Amino acid sequence: MKTRSRTTKVLTIAIALAALAAVGWLQPVKAQTGDGSVRFVTYASVGIIPDERIRLSMGNPKNSAGTIMLSYSFYLAHGNISSSTPLYESELIKVPAGEFRYVDVRRKNLNTEGELPTGRAQMIVRTTIIAPAGSNPDDFAGSLEVLEDEVQDGNTVPLDSKYRLVILAARRSKQVNAPIALLPGQSLRFTFLYPDEEGSEPVSVTTFTYDGIGRLTSQSTPVKLEPGECHTFVVNYDDLRVEGEKGTGRTQVGSGIQVLMTDGSVRSLNLPVWMELVNNQTGSTSGGGTYYAGSVTVSGDGF
Residue 19's pLDDT is what? Predict the structure, then answer.
């Protein structure tokens, strides 16, 4: 018989679009449509393994100006999603004022083998909302959850902890902003999406991890991102040059990110970032939290 932790495991990435602009799901791109309505495009990144499903929910408040329309598209979190064909695309969903709708997308319905040997698929989920003129994306409450394909009692399990990853803006400080514990057999995954917006130029991204007194324990090879591209960095426990706690091997680390404009300029840009704690043996995400995403100013050295 399955244990409770197995049958009721739920990863809640976000609970309200009002908060998502700060936590990394909502990175709105607003556009006017021909009928006067407005369109908001948002992104999220999440890993899913066989026998799991993603549940996407969206609410429309009672005081809304009218019915909203929304759709979800799933892309693999590598390469350029602007030119990619989605692995899954929902039909257009109507959500009247004062109501909500949800849709489940099962791992088996995503046409990809995933990573070996776990079958994990790292996804970018694109949400498109078409709303009445004058609408604000903060008005629409939504959530993204990962749950087992067969949940016996229907219960959900709250996250044990929250983690915040902050891109340091226009500062040379390598301040540790995302303390998190790793155990042997685990890894941290950082997924970046560089939206394809007008005037965007390539950027170079590097990730760093530090121990409790600020010493560098791991550094990734810099990756160049073109507009529209996404990339996932994996930091394995075994890559850390630090001794863990006796008995468990547990080690506490912090994270930092360097973002450089390849043309050497200093400007504001939108660069959503997501972080997940992953079990390397099963490929499942065992933690989540709130992360920084938004407009950042990149200085000459990237910090």
Answer: 26
